[in-house]
Design a protein that fits this description.
single chain, alpha+beta, 6-stranded antiparallel sheet, 27 helices
Protein backbone atom coordinates (compact mmCIF):
# COMPACT_ATOMS: atom_id res chain seq x y z
CA UNK A 1 0.00 0.00 0.00
CA UNK A 2 1.57 3.21 -1.14
CA UNK A 3 1.32 6.62 -2.72
CA UNK A 4 1.99 6.97 -6.43
CA UNK A 5 2.65 9.98 -8.62
CA UNK A 6 3.84 10.71 -12.11
CA UNK A 7 3.98 13.08 -15.03
CA UNK A 8 4.17 12.68 -18.81
CA UNK A 9 4.84 15.51 -21.24
CA UNK A 10 2.23 15.47 -23.98
CA UNK A 11 4.32 17.36 -26.51
CA UNK A 12 7.37 15.78 -28.12
CA UNK A 13 10.54 17.53 -27.11
CA UNK A 14 9.09 18.64 -23.77
CA UNK A 15 10.31 17.14 -20.49
CA UNK A 16 8.51 16.08 -17.35
CA UNK A 17 9.65 17.91 -14.25
CA UNK A 18 10.95 15.37 -11.70
CA UNK A 19 10.96 18.00 -8.96
CA UNK A 20 7.17 18.26 -9.32
CA UNK A 21 6.79 14.52 -9.08
CA UNK A 22 8.98 14.51 -6.00
CA UNK A 23 6.81 17.26 -4.49
CA UNK A 24 3.69 15.17 -5.15
CA UNK A 25 5.31 12.25 -3.36
CA UNK A 26 6.28 14.46 -0.44
CA UNK A 27 2.65 15.58 -0.15
CA UNK A 28 1.71 11.88 0.17
CA UNK A 29 4.41 10.84 2.60
CA UNK A 30 1.74 9.58 5.03
CA UNK A 31 0.75 6.96 2.43
CA UNK A 32 4.23 5.46 2.41
CA UNK A 33 6.69 6.41 5.15
CA UNK A 34 8.96 3.37 4.66
CA UNK A 35 10.71 4.29 1.40
CA UNK A 36 10.69 6.74 -1.51
CA UNK A 37 11.76 6.53 -5.12
CA UNK A 38 11.96 8.65 -8.27
CA UNK A 39 12.67 7.71 -11.90
CA UNK A 40 12.82 9.59 -15.19
CA UNK A 41 12.82 8.11 -18.68
CA UNK A 42 15.82 8.49 -20.98
CA UNK A 43 13.92 10.91 -23.22
CA UNK A 44 12.89 12.81 -20.05
CA UNK A 45 9.21 12.86 -21.12
CA UNK A 46 8.09 10.67 -18.20
CA UNK A 47 8.82 10.85 -14.48
CA UNK A 48 7.42 8.42 -11.91
CA UNK A 49 7.49 8.71 -8.12
CA UNK A 50 6.57 6.46 -5.21
CA UNK A 51 6.11 6.44 -1.45
CA UNK A 52 6.20 2.94 0.00
CA UNK A 53 4.36 1.29 2.87
CA UNK A 54 6.10 -2.10 2.98
CA UNK A 55 3.64 -4.99 3.31
CA UNK A 56 4.82 -7.70 0.89
CA UNK A 57 8.54 -8.32 0.27
CA UNK A 58 9.91 -5.98 2.92
CA UNK A 59 13.41 -6.11 1.43
CA UNK A 60 14.98 -3.35 -0.69
CA UNK A 61 14.11 -5.42 -3.79
CA UNK A 62 10.52 -4.19 -3.40
CA UNK A 63 11.67 -0.60 -4.03
CA UNK A 64 9.68 1.44 -6.54
CA UNK A 65 9.56 2.70 -9.23
CA UNK A 66 10.29 -0.86 -10.37
CA UNK A 67 11.54 -1.93 -13.79
CA UNK A 68 11.67 -5.22 -15.64
CA UNK A 69 14.95 -6.98 -16.47
CA UNK A 70 15.02 -5.41 -19.95
CA UNK A 71 14.61 -1.93 -18.42
CA UNK A 72 11.73 -1.18 -20.80
CA UNK A 73 8.78 -1.31 -18.40
CA UNK A 74 8.59 0.89 -15.31
CA UNK A 75 5.79 0.93 -12.76
CA UNK A 76 4.55 2.69 -9.63
CA UNK A 77 1.92 0.59 -7.87
CA UNK A 78 -0.45 1.13 -4.95
CA UNK A 79 -2.36 -1.83 -3.55
CA UNK A 80 -2.10 -5.57 -3.01
CA UNK A 81 -2.46 -8.44 -5.47
CA UNK A 82 -3.71 -11.45 -3.53
CA UNK A 83 -3.21 -14.02 -6.30
CA UNK A 84 0.30 -12.89 -7.21
CA UNK A 85 1.84 -16.24 -6.22
CA UNK A 86 -0.43 -18.11 -8.65
CA UNK A 87 0.20 -15.57 -11.42
CA UNK A 88 3.93 -15.72 -10.81
CA UNK A 89 3.87 -19.52 -11.13
CA UNK A 90 1.93 -19.29 -14.39
CA UNK A 91 4.36 -16.71 -15.78
CA UNK A 92 7.36 -18.82 -14.78
CA UNK A 93 5.81 -21.74 -16.65
CA UNK A 94 5.67 -19.45 -19.68
CA UNK A 95 9.41 -18.82 -19.37
CA UNK A 96 9.60 -15.58 -17.40
CA UNK A 97 12.15 -15.06 -14.62
CA UNK A 98 11.66 -12.95 -11.48
CA UNK A 99 14.14 -10.92 -9.46
CA UNK A 100 11.94 -10.14 -6.41
CA UNK A 101 9.24 -11.70 -4.22
CA UNK A 102 6.89 -8.75 -4.69
CA UNK A 103 3.44 -8.58 -6.24
CA UNK A 104 4.53 -5.45 -8.10
CA UNK A 105 6.89 -7.39 -10.34
CA UNK A 106 4.06 -9.79 -11.23
CA UNK A 107 2.14 -6.87 -12.74
CA UNK A 108 5.20 -5.83 -14.74
CA UNK A 109 5.89 -9.28 -16.16
CA UNK A 110 2.19 -9.97 -16.57
CA UNK A 111 1.82 -6.83 -18.66
CA UNK A 112 4.72 -7.92 -20.83
CA UNK A 113 2.99 -11.28 -21.40
CA UNK A 114 -0.70 -10.31 -21.64
CA UNK A 115 -0.81 -6.56 -22.17
CA UNK A 116 -4.08 -5.05 -20.93
CA UNK A 117 -5.30 -8.61 -20.35
CA UNK A 118 -3.39 -8.57 -17.07
CA UNK A 119 -6.11 -6.37 -15.56
CA UNK A 120 -8.73 -9.12 -15.68
CA UNK A 121 -6.31 -11.59 -14.10
CA UNK A 122 -5.50 -9.53 -11.02
CA UNK A 123 -7.36 -10.37 -7.79
CA UNK A 124 -6.88 -7.55 -5.34
CA UNK A 125 -6.97 -3.78 -4.96
CA UNK A 126 -4.75 -1.61 -7.09
CA UNK A 127 -4.00 1.63 -8.85
CA UNK A 128 -0.84 1.93 -10.90
CA UNK A 129 1.01 3.91 -13.53
CA UNK A 130 3.12 1.94 -16.01
CA UNK A 131 5.41 3.31 -18.70
CA UNK A 132 6.47 1.24 -21.71
CA UNK A 133 9.56 2.81 -23.27
CA UNK A 134 9.24 0.59 -26.36
CA UNK A 135 5.84 2.00 -27.34
CA UNK A 136 6.20 5.26 -25.42
CA UNK A 137 2.82 4.63 -23.73
CA UNK A 138 1.84 5.56 -20.20
CA UNK A 139 -0.94 3.40 -18.73
CA UNK A 140 -3.04 4.23 -15.66
CA UNK A 141 -5.31 1.51 -14.27
CA UNK A 142 -7.61 1.01 -11.30
CA UNK A 143 -8.99 -2.12 -9.64
CA UNK A 144 -12.44 -3.44 -10.65
CA UNK A 145 -14.30 -2.29 -7.53
CA UNK A 146 -12.57 1.05 -6.95
CA UNK A 147 -10.84 0.31 -3.65
CA UNK A 148 -7.69 2.22 -4.56
CA UNK A 149 -7.87 5.70 -6.14
CA UNK A 150 -5.93 7.50 -8.83
CA UNK A 151 -6.52 11.10 -9.91
CA UNK A 152 -5.16 12.89 -12.96
CA UNK A 153 -5.08 16.30 -14.61
CA UNK A 154 -3.81 17.87 -17.81
CA UNK A 155 -1.93 21.09 -17.15
CA UNK A 156 1.17 22.86 -18.47
CA UNK A 157 1.44 20.52 -21.45
CA UNK A 158 1.59 17.35 -19.32
CA UNK A 159 -0.62 14.73 -17.77
CA UNK A 160 0.01 14.38 -14.05
CA UNK A 161 -1.41 11.72 -11.74
CA UNK A 162 -1.36 10.87 -8.04
CA UNK A 163 -3.09 8.87 -5.33
CA UNK A 164 -4.53 12.03 -3.79
CA UNK A 165 -5.92 15.28 -5.13
CA UNK A 166 -3.89 17.15 -2.53
CA UNK A 167 -0.71 15.93 -4.17
CA UNK A 168 -1.77 17.32 -7.56
CA UNK A 169 -2.74 20.60 -5.95
CA UNK A 170 0.78 20.88 -4.55
CA UNK A 171 2.24 21.30 -8.05
CA UNK A 172 -0.43 22.35 -10.57
CA UNK A 173 -3.47 24.61 -10.79
CA UNK A 174 -6.38 22.20 -10.40
CA UNK A 175 -8.98 24.76 -11.40
CA UNK A 176 -11.97 26.35 -9.72
CA UNK A 177 -14.56 24.27 -7.84
CA UNK A 178 -16.62 22.24 -10.32
CA UNK A 179 -20.33 23.22 -10.09
CA UNK A 180 -21.39 19.77 -11.31
CA UNK A 181 -19.32 18.11 -8.59
CA UNK A 182 -20.84 20.40 -5.97
CA UNK A 183 -24.32 19.61 -7.27
CA UNK A 184 -23.55 15.88 -7.04
CA UNK A 185 -22.26 16.34 -3.50
CA UNK A 186 -25.39 18.21 -2.43
CA UNK A 187 -27.62 15.52 -3.95
CA UNK A 188 -25.75 12.48 -2.57
CA UNK A 189 -23.30 13.58 0.14
CA UNK A 190 -20.26 12.51 -1.90
CA UNK A 191 -18.57 13.04 -5.27
CA UNK A 192 -18.08 9.93 -7.37
CA UNK A 193 -15.66 9.27 -10.22
CA UNK A 194 -14.96 10.73 -12.68
CA UNK A 195 -15.85 14.06 -11.04
CA UNK A 196 -13.86 15.69 -8.26
CA UNK A 197 -14.33 18.98 -6.45
CA UNK A 198 -11.76 20.52 -8.81
CA UNK A 199 -12.74 21.31 -12.39
CA UNK A 200 -9.40 20.23 -13.90
CA UNK A 201 -8.99 17.00 -11.94
CA UNK A 202 -10.65 13.70 -12.79
CA UNK A 203 -10.80 10.43 -10.90
CA UNK A 204 -10.23 7.26 -12.90
CA UNK A 205 -13.46 5.24 -12.50
CA UNK A 206 -13.47 1.79 -10.89
CA UNK A 207 -12.57 -0.98 -13.32
CA UNK A 208 -11.07 1.42 -15.86
CA UNK A 209 -7.80 2.19 -17.62
CA UNK A 210 -6.45 5.28 -19.34
CA UNK A 211 -3.55 5.46 -21.76
CA UNK A 212 -1.37 8.26 -23.08
CA UNK A 213 -0.22 7.32 -26.58
CA UNK A 214 1.40 9.61 -29.12
CA UNK A 215 0.69 12.64 -26.96
CA UNK A 216 -3.04 11.87 -26.82
CA UNK A 217 -5.06 10.69 -23.84
CA UNK A 218 -7.19 7.62 -24.60
CA UNK A 219 -9.99 6.76 -22.23
CA UNK A 220 -11.02 6.18 -19.58
CA UNK A 221 -11.99 2.75 -20.91
CA UNK A 222 -14.04 0.38 -18.73
CA UNK A 223 -12.79 -3.20 -18.52
CA UNK A 224 -15.10 -4.41 -15.72
CA UNK A 225 -18.73 -3.69 -14.78
CA UNK A 226 -19.99 -5.00 -11.48
CA UNK A 227 -23.56 -5.29 -12.79
CA UNK A 228 -22.38 -7.89 -15.33
CA UNK A 229 -22.09 -10.31 -12.41
CA UNK A 230 -25.92 -10.35 -12.19
CA UNK A 231 -27.87 -13.05 -13.98
CA UNK A 232 -25.70 -16.07 -13.19
CA UNK A 233 -27.73 -17.29 -10.22
CA UNK A 234 -27.66 -21.05 -9.59
CA UNK A 235 -30.37 -23.27 -8.15
CA UNK A 236 -29.59 -24.23 -4.55
CA UNK A 237 -31.49 -24.78 -1.33
CA UNK A 238 -30.76 -23.06 1.99
CA UNK A 239 -28.28 -25.68 3.20
CA UNK A 240 -26.37 -25.64 -0.09
CA UNK A 241 -26.29 -21.84 -0.06
CA UNK A 242 -24.92 -21.83 3.51
CA UNK A 243 -22.10 -24.27 2.67
CA UNK A 244 -21.21 -22.46 -0.54
CA UNK A 245 -21.23 -19.01 1.09
CA UNK A 246 -19.04 -20.22 3.95
CA UNK A 247 -16.46 -21.70 1.56
CA UNK A 248 -16.37 -18.50 -0.52
CA UNK A 249 -16.07 -16.24 2.52
CA UNK A 250 -13.26 -18.31 4.04
CA UNK A 251 -11.39 -18.25 0.73
CA UNK A 252 -11.65 -14.45 0.51
CA UNK A 253 -10.45 -14.03 4.10
CA UNK A 254 -7.46 -16.28 3.36
CA UNK A 255 -6.61 -14.16 0.32
CA UNK A 256 -6.78 -10.95 2.31
CA UNK A 257 -4.42 -12.23 5.01
CA UNK A 258 -1.47 -12.59 2.60
CA UNK A 259 1.26 -10.28 3.92
CA UNK A 260 4.76 -10.20 5.36
CA UNK A 261 3.50 -8.16 8.33
CA UNK A 262 0.74 -8.82 10.85
CA UNK A 263 -2.84 -8.46 9.61
CA UNK A 264 -5.21 -7.29 12.34
CA UNK A 265 -8.87 -6.29 12.34
CA UNK A 266 -11.27 -3.55 13.33
CA UNK A 267 -13.70 -5.06 15.85
CA UNK A 268 -16.81 -3.01 16.57
CA UNK A 269 -20.06 -4.45 17.89
CA UNK A 270 -21.51 -4.97 14.41
CA UNK A 271 -22.25 -8.20 12.58
CA UNK A 272 -19.78 -7.61 9.75
CA UNK A 273 -16.66 -6.95 11.81
CA UNK A 274 -17.48 -9.70 14.32
CA UNK A 275 -18.16 -12.26 11.58
CA UNK A 276 -14.94 -11.39 9.75
CA UNK A 277 -12.89 -11.69 12.93
CA UNK A 278 -14.49 -15.09 13.51
CA UNK A 279 -13.57 -16.22 10.00
CA UNK A 280 -10.04 -14.86 10.42
CA UNK A 281 -9.50 -16.97 13.53
CA UNK A 282 -10.54 -20.06 11.59
CA UNK A 283 -7.80 -19.60 9.00
CA UNK A 284 -5.08 -18.34 11.35
CA UNK A 285 -2.66 -20.35 13.46
CA UNK A 286 -2.24 -17.52 15.97
CA UNK A 287 -4.57 -15.07 17.75
CA UNK A 288 -5.79 -12.14 15.66
CA UNK A 289 -5.05 -8.64 16.91
CA UNK A 290 -8.36 -6.79 17.11
CA UNK A 291 -8.95 -3.09 17.78
CA UNK A 292 -11.97 -1.27 19.14
CA UNK A 293 -12.29 2.48 19.63
CA UNK A 294 -14.14 2.84 22.91
CA UNK A 295 -16.06 6.01 23.77
CA UNK A 296 -16.38 7.26 27.29
CA UNK A 297 -20.13 7.58 26.79
CA UNK A 298 -22.32 4.50 27.20
CA UNK A 299 -24.84 5.34 24.46
CA UNK A 300 -22.05 5.44 21.84
CA UNK A 301 -19.75 2.74 23.19
CA UNK A 302 -19.59 -0.70 21.57
CA UNK A 303 -16.60 -1.66 23.69
CA UNK A 304 -18.41 -4.23 25.88
CA UNK A 305 -19.87 -6.02 22.84
CA UNK A 306 -16.49 -6.07 21.11
CA UNK A 307 -14.88 -7.56 24.22
CA UNK A 308 -17.47 -10.35 24.27
CA UNK A 309 -16.74 -11.09 20.62
CA UNK A 310 -12.98 -10.99 21.26
CA UNK A 311 -13.39 -13.49 24.09
CA UNK A 312 -15.54 -15.78 21.93
CA UNK A 313 -13.02 -15.87 19.06
CA UNK A 314 -9.87 -15.64 21.18
CA UNK A 315 -8.40 -12.46 19.73
CA UNK A 316 -5.61 -10.36 21.17
CA UNK A 317 -7.93 -7.45 21.80
CA UNK A 318 -7.17 -3.75 22.29
CA UNK A 319 -9.97 -1.55 23.55
CA UNK A 320 -8.65 1.96 22.94
CA UNK A 321 -10.45 4.67 24.96
CA UNK A 322 -11.08 8.06 23.44
CA UNK A 323 -12.87 11.11 24.83
CA UNK A 324 -15.80 12.43 22.83
CA UNK A 325 -14.48 15.93 23.42
CA UNK A 326 -11.16 14.94 21.84
CA UNK A 327 -12.97 13.88 18.67
CA UNK A 328 -14.82 17.18 18.55
CA UNK A 329 -11.60 19.15 19.01
CA UNK A 330 -9.90 17.28 16.14
CA UNK A 331 -12.90 17.01 13.86
CA UNK A 332 -11.76 19.65 11.38
CA UNK A 333 -8.40 17.89 10.92
CA UNK A 334 -10.24 14.64 10.23
CA UNK A 335 -12.63 16.28 7.77
CA UNK A 336 -9.83 17.80 5.73
CA UNK A 337 -8.05 14.45 5.60
CA UNK A 338 -10.89 13.26 3.34
CA UNK A 339 -9.14 14.90 0.35
CA UNK A 340 -12.54 16.03 -0.98
CA UNK A 341 -15.93 16.55 0.71
CA UNK A 342 -17.98 13.62 1.99
CA UNK A 343 -20.49 13.34 4.83
CA UNK A 344 -19.02 9.98 5.90
CA UNK A 345 -15.63 8.55 6.85
CA UNK A 346 -14.66 10.46 9.98
CA UNK A 347 -14.95 7.34 12.12
CA UNK A 348 -12.32 5.58 9.98
CA UNK A 349 -9.85 8.38 10.71
CA UNK A 350 -9.94 7.75 14.46
CA UNK A 351 -10.13 3.96 14.46
CA UNK A 352 -7.22 3.80 11.98
CA UNK A 353 -5.18 5.96 14.31
CA UNK A 354 -6.00 3.54 17.14
CA UNK A 355 -4.91 0.55 15.03
CA UNK A 356 -1.54 2.14 14.29
CA UNK A 357 -1.07 2.90 17.99
CA UNK A 358 -1.16 -0.84 18.77
CA UNK A 359 1.43 -1.56 16.07
CA UNK A 360 -0.66 -2.58 13.05
CA UNK A 361 0.18 -1.70 9.45
CA UNK A 362 -2.75 -3.71 7.99
CA UNK A 363 -6.31 -4.04 9.28
CA UNK A 364 -9.35 -5.90 8.00
CA UNK A 365 -12.63 -3.97 7.66
CA UNK A 366 -16.21 -5.22 7.27
CA UNK A 367 -17.08 -2.70 4.58
CA UNK A 368 -19.39 -4.30 2.00
CA UNK A 369 -21.39 -6.60 4.25
CA UNK A 370 -24.53 -4.49 4.26
CA UNK A 371 -24.52 -4.21 0.47
CA UNK A 372 -24.16 -7.97 -0.10
CA UNK A 373 -26.31 -9.32 2.72
CA UNK A 374 -29.14 -6.73 2.83
CA UNK A 375 -28.16 -4.86 5.97
CA UNK A 376 -29.43 -1.40 5.00
CA UNK A 377 -32.95 -0.02 5.40
CA UNK A 378 -32.99 0.59 1.64
CA UNK A 379 -33.56 -3.13 1.13
CA UNK A 380 -36.94 -2.80 2.85
CA UNK A 381 -37.85 0.72 1.77
CA UNK A 382 -37.13 1.01 -1.94
CA UNK A 383 -39.76 -1.39 -3.30
CA UNK A 384 -42.67 0.11 -1.29
CA UNK A 385 -41.75 3.61 -2.52
CA UNK A 386 -41.71 2.45 -6.15
CA UNK A 387 -44.92 0.45 -5.88
CA UNK A 388 -46.79 3.21 -4.07
CA UNK A 389 -45.89 5.70 -6.77
CA UNK A 390 -46.92 3.24 -9.46
CA UNK A 391 -50.32 2.92 -7.79
CA UNK A 392 -50.66 6.70 -7.60
CA UNK A 393 -50.26 6.84 -11.38
CA UNK A 394 -53.68 5.22 -11.65
CA UNK A 395 -55.31 8.23 -9.97
CA UNK A 396 -56.81 10.67 -12.51
CA UNK A 397 -54.70 13.81 -12.82
CA UNK A 398 -51.94 12.60 -10.52
CA UNK A 399 -49.30 12.92 -13.20
CA UNK A 400 -49.88 16.65 -13.49
CA UNK A 401 -50.07 17.15 -9.72
CA UNK A 402 -47.09 15.09 -8.64
CA UNK A 403 -44.31 17.66 -9.11
CA UNK A 404 -46.24 20.67 -7.75
CA UNK A 405 -47.35 18.69 -4.69
CA UNK A 406 -43.84 17.41 -4.03
CA UNK A 407 -42.47 20.97 -4.21
CA UNK A 408 -45.16 22.41 -1.96
CA UNK A 409 -45.19 19.67 0.67
CA UNK A 410 -42.08 20.76 2.64
CA UNK A 411 -43.52 24.29 2.87
CA UNK A 412 -47.00 23.13 3.88
CA UNK A 413 -45.73 20.56 6.40
CA UNK A 414 -42.61 22.08 8.02
CA UNK A 415 -41.25 18.82 9.38
CA UNK A 416 -38.15 16.78 8.55
CA UNK A 417 -40.23 13.81 7.37
CA UNK A 418 -41.93 15.93 4.71
CA UNK A 419 -38.60 16.29 2.91
CA UNK A 420 -38.31 12.53 2.32
CA UNK A 421 -41.99 12.11 1.44
CA UNK A 422 -41.65 14.84 -1.16
CA UNK A 423 -38.57 13.19 -2.68
CA UNK A 424 -40.40 9.84 -2.84
CA UNK A 425 -43.41 11.47 -4.47
CA UNK A 426 -41.31 13.19 -7.11
CA UNK A 427 -38.82 10.42 -7.92
CA UNK A 428 -40.36 7.15 -6.81
CA UNK A 429 -41.85 6.15 -10.15
CA UNK A 430 -38.51 4.72 -11.29
CA UNK A 431 -36.20 2.33 -9.42
CA UNK A 432 -33.22 4.73 -9.59
CA UNK A 433 -35.50 7.50 -8.36
CA UNK A 434 -36.81 5.39 -5.49
CA UNK A 435 -33.20 4.76 -4.48
CA UNK A 436 -32.47 8.49 -4.54
CA UNK A 437 -35.57 9.12 -2.42
CA UNK A 438 -33.93 7.01 0.30
CA UNK A 439 -30.24 7.82 -0.15
CA UNK A 440 -30.43 11.39 -1.43
CA UNK A 441 -29.36 14.33 0.70
CA UNK A 442 -30.84 17.58 -0.64
CA UNK A 443 -33.71 17.52 -3.12
CA UNK A 444 -33.33 18.74 -6.70
CA UNK A 445 -35.05 22.02 -5.86
CA UNK A 446 -32.93 22.57 -2.75
CA UNK A 447 -29.73 21.77 -4.66
CA UNK A 448 -30.67 24.15 -7.45
CA UNK A 449 -31.42 26.92 -4.95
CA UNK A 450 -28.12 26.41 -3.13
CA UNK A 451 -26.11 26.98 -6.30
CA UNK A 452 -25.40 30.50 -7.52
CA UNK A 453 -27.83 31.52 -10.33
CA UNK A 454 -25.15 31.49 -13.02
CA UNK A 455 -24.20 27.82 -12.39
CA UNK A 456 -27.60 26.29 -11.63
CA UNK A 457 -27.65 24.47 -14.96
CA UNK A 458 -25.03 22.15 -13.43
CA UNK A 459 -27.88 20.26 -11.74
CA UNK A 460 -29.06 19.02 -15.15
CA UNK A 461 -25.86 16.99 -15.48
CA UNK A 462 -26.58 15.26 -12.15
CA UNK A 463 -30.27 14.34 -12.36
CA UNK A 464 -30.63 11.42 -9.92
CA UNK A 465 -32.39 8.99 -12.26
CA UNK A 466 -29.88 9.54 -15.07
CA UNK A 467 -27.01 9.46 -12.57
CA UNK A 468 -27.98 6.04 -11.20
CA UNK A 469 -28.85 4.63 -14.62
CA UNK A 470 -25.38 5.62 -15.77
CA UNK A 471 -23.82 4.03 -12.68
CA UNK A 472 -25.37 0.63 -13.48
CA UNK A 473 -25.01 0.85 -17.24
CA UNK A 474 -28.76 1.10 -17.93
CA UNK A 475 -29.08 -2.60 -17.13
CA UNK A 476 -32.56 -4.01 -16.52
CA UNK A 477 -31.67 -5.57 -13.19
CA UNK A 478 -33.76 -8.21 -11.42
CA UNK A 479 -35.86 -6.57 -8.72
CA UNK A 480 -34.34 -8.83 -6.07
CA UNK A 481 -30.83 -7.54 -6.84
CA UNK A 482 -31.47 -3.87 -7.61
CA UNK A 483 -30.77 -2.54 -4.14
CA UNK A 484 -27.53 -4.52 -3.80
CA UNK A 485 -26.22 -3.21 -7.10
CA UNK A 486 -27.29 0.38 -6.40
CA UNK A 487 -25.65 0.32 -2.97
CA UNK A 488 -22.46 -1.23 -4.32
CA UNK A 489 -22.18 1.18 -7.23
CA UNK A 490 -23.20 4.38 -5.43
CA UNK A 491 -22.78 4.38 -1.66
CA UNK A 492 -19.95 1.85 -1.48
CA UNK A 493 -17.85 2.97 -4.45
CA UNK A 494 -18.47 6.71 -4.38
CA UNK A 495 -18.31 7.14 -0.62
CA UNK A 496 -17.34 4.29 1.71
CA UNK A 497 -14.32 2.95 -0.19
CA UNK A 498 -12.95 6.36 -1.15
CA UNK A 499 -13.34 7.68 2.40
CA UNK A 500 -11.80 4.55 3.91
CA UNK A 501 -8.72 4.84 1.71
CA UNK A 502 -8.21 8.55 2.42
CA UNK A 503 -8.71 8.28 6.18
CA UNK A 504 -6.74 5.09 6.83
CA UNK A 505 -3.78 6.09 4.66
CA UNK A 506 -3.58 9.41 6.48
CA UNK A 507 -2.24 7.26 9.34
CA UNK A 508 -0.16 4.95 7.09
CA UNK A 509 -2.57 2.07 7.66
CA UNK A 510 -3.57 -0.34 4.91
CA UNK A 511 -7.24 -1.34 5.21
CA UNK A 512 -8.31 -4.53 3.46
CA UNK A 513 -11.90 -5.36 2.58
CA UNK A 514 -12.53 -9.12 2.13
CA UNK A 515 -16.21 -8.47 1.40
CA UNK A 516 -15.31 -6.09 -1.43
CA UNK A 517 -13.56 -8.62 -3.61
CA UNK A 518 -14.24 -9.23 -7.29
CA UNK A 519 -14.02 -12.99 -7.01
CA UNK A 520 -16.19 -13.14 -3.88
CA UNK A 521 -18.89 -10.89 -5.35
CA UNK A 522 -19.04 -12.99 -8.50
CA UNK A 523 -19.44 -16.10 -6.35
CA UNK A 524 -22.02 -14.66 -3.96
CA UNK A 525 -24.25 -13.39 -6.76
CA UNK A 526 -24.67 -17.03 -7.80
CA UNK A 527 -26.61 -17.59 -4.57
CA UNK A 528 -30.36 -16.91 -4.93
CA UNK A 529 -31.19 -13.58 -3.30
CA UNK A 530 -33.75 -15.15 -0.96
CA UNK A 531 -30.84 -16.95 0.73
CA UNK A 532 -28.23 -14.19 0.50
CA UNK A 533 -30.67 -11.58 1.80
CA UNK A 534 -32.22 -13.85 4.44
CA UNK A 535 -33.18 -12.09 7.67
CA UNK A 536 -32.75 -11.25 10.42
CA UNK A 537 -29.42 -9.46 10.52
CA UNK A 538 -27.54 -10.90 7.53
CA UNK A 539 -28.22 -14.48 8.58
CA UNK A 540 -26.22 -16.21 5.83
CA UNK A 541 -23.11 -14.24 6.75
CA UNK A 542 -23.28 -14.49 10.54
CA UNK A 543 -24.05 -18.23 10.42
CA UNK A 544 -21.08 -18.89 8.14
CA UNK A 545 -18.76 -18.48 11.15
CA UNK A 546 -17.80 -21.26 13.60
CA UNK A 547 -19.13 -20.58 16.19
CA UNK A 548 -21.83 -18.33 14.65
CA UNK A 549 -22.06 -14.66 15.56
CA UNK A 550 -23.88 -14.64 18.93
CA UNK A 551 -27.37 -13.13 19.43
CA UNK A 552 -26.11 -10.31 21.65
CA UNK A 553 -24.42 -8.94 18.51
CA UNK A 554 -27.03 -9.46 15.80
CA UNK A 555 -30.29 -9.29 17.77
CA UNK A 556 -29.75 -5.74 19.01
CA UNK A 557 -30.75 -2.59 17.16
CA UNK A 558 -28.39 -1.67 14.32
CA UNK A 559 -26.25 1.13 15.75
CA UNK A 560 -23.47 2.02 13.38
CA UNK A 561 -20.24 3.67 14.42
CA UNK A 562 -20.78 7.39 14.74
CA UNK A 563 -20.28 10.50 16.81
CA UNK A 564 -22.80 12.90 18.41
CA UNK A 565 -22.46 15.45 15.60
CA UNK A 566 -26.12 16.40 15.91
CA UNK A 567 -25.53 17.30 19.56
CA UNK A 568 -22.45 19.38 18.72
CA UNK A 569 -24.30 21.19 15.95
CA UNK A 570 -27.20 22.02 18.28
CA UNK A 571 -24.87 23.56 20.84
CA UNK A 572 -22.72 25.27 18.20
CA UNK A 573 -19.44 23.82 19.49
CA UNK A 574 -17.86 22.69 16.19
CA UNK A 575 -15.00 24.73 14.66
CA UNK A 576 -16.61 24.91 11.20
CA UNK A 577 -18.62 27.58 9.39
CA UNK A 578 -21.08 27.69 6.52
CA UNK A 579 -19.55 28.12 3.06
CA UNK A 580 -19.25 31.61 1.62
CA UNK A 581 -18.20 31.09 -1.98
CA UNK A 582 -19.26 32.51 -5.37
CA UNK A 583 -20.42 29.08 -6.56
CA UNK A 584 -23.15 29.06 -3.87
CA UNK A 585 -26.15 31.29 -3.15
CA UNK A 586 -25.60 32.99 0.21
CA UNK A 587 -29.28 33.39 1.07
CA UNK A 588 -30.06 29.74 0.34
CA UNK A 589 -27.07 28.61 2.40
CA UNK A 590 -28.22 30.75 5.34
CA UNK A 591 -31.75 29.35 4.97
CA UNK A 592 -30.44 25.82 5.52
CA UNK A 593 -29.19 26.81 8.97
CA UNK A 594 -32.48 28.58 9.70
CA UNK A 595 -34.48 25.50 8.70
CA UNK A 596 -32.22 23.24 10.74
CA UNK A 597 -32.53 25.41 13.85
CA UNK A 598 -36.32 25.47 13.41
CA UNK A 599 -36.50 21.66 13.19
CA UNK A 600 -37.59 21.66 9.54
CA UNK A 601 -34.42 20.04 8.19
CA UNK A 602 -32.38 17.07 9.38
CA UNK A 603 -29.02 17.89 10.90
CA UNK A 604 -27.15 15.90 8.23
CA UNK A 605 -28.03 18.55 5.59
CA UNK A 606 -26.62 21.34 7.73
CA UNK A 607 -23.54 19.24 8.49
CA UNK A 608 -23.03 18.55 4.78
CA UNK A 609 -22.83 22.28 4.08
CA UNK A 610 -20.37 22.82 6.91
CA UNK A 611 -18.10 20.13 5.46
CA UNK A 612 -18.35 21.72 2.01
CA UNK A 613 -17.51 25.05 3.57
CA UNK A 614 -14.32 23.59 5.02
CA UNK A 615 -13.14 22.48 1.59
CA UNK A 616 -14.16 25.62 -0.25
CA UNK A 617 -12.41 27.83 2.28
CA UNK A 618 -9.31 25.61 2.09
CA UNK A 619 -9.47 25.77 -1.70
CA UNK A 620 -9.56 29.58 -1.55
CA UNK A 621 -6.75 29.84 1.00
Amino acid sequence: MCGIAGMMALVEGRAADPSRVEAMCDAQRHRGPDDAGLWQSRDRRVALGHRRLSIIDLSPSGHQPMHDDADTLHIVFNGEIYNFVELRSELETLGHAFRTQSDTEVILIGYRQWGLGILDRLVGMFAFGLHDSTSGDLLLARDPLGIKPVYYTQADGALSFASEIGALRAVVDCGAPDPEAIAEYLLWGSIGAPRTLHSRVRALPPGAWLRVRGGRVEGPNIYYRLEDEIGHCESMDGAEAARYARDCLLASVRRHRIADVEVGAFLSGGVDSVALVGLMTEVSDRPITSVNLSFQREALDEGPISEQAALLYGTKHHRIPIRVDEIRERLLTAVRSLDQPSIDGINVYFVSEAAVRVGLKVAISGVGGDELFAGYSTFDGMAPIHRTQSLLDWLPGMGALRDPVSRALPRIVPRQAAHKVAMALRHGRSWPGAYFAQRGLFSLDQTTALLAPEVRDAVRACLPEAHMSGRVGNRDLPESERVSVYELRQYLQSQLLRDTDAMSMRHSLEVRTPLVDRQLISELFRIPSEHRHARPAKRLFREAVRPPVPPQVWARKKQGFGFPIDEWLAEGSLPVTLPDHPVLDRRAVAQVETDYRAGRLHWSRYWALLILGSFLSERSA
